[in-house]
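=== RUN LOG ===
request id: a7f3
mode: sequence -> structure
chains: 1
length: 116
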Amino acid sequence: MSKIYKTLISATDKFVPAKLRPLWNHEAGPKTIFFWAPAFKWGLVIAGLGDLTRPVETLSIPQSASLAATGIIWSRYSLVITPKNYSLFAVNVFVAITSLYQIGRAYKHQSTEKKE
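=== RESULT ===
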C-alpha cells in the first residue's frame, strides 16, 4: 500500500462510527481493493444499461459475449475466494445479465433480417 493511502485510512479511522466498524474493518471492506474494484466495476453495468437504448444494428455480439463470459466467470470466482466477495458477485451477475440481454437482442435482430 502506498504511504498516501495508509495516511488517508489512518486519518479516516478516527471518524468511523462504532456501528460501522465491523464493515470498515472487514476483510472485504472499504480499506481494501476487494471493496473498490467492484464499486468501480458498476460503471460497466451502467454502460450496459445505457446500451439498451442503442440501435440494435450497432451492437457487437463478440463484445457482449466477452462481457457475459467475464461476468459469469468472475461471479463464480467471487464465491470461491476468501473472503467471499458478495459485492463482486453482484456486480458480475449484473454485467452478465445485461450482456446476455444484448446478445439476445442482436441475435433476434439478425434472425429477423435473414428471414426478410
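=== NOTES ===
The chain has a mean pLDDT of 91.
The two ends are 59 Å apart (CA to CA).
=== END ===
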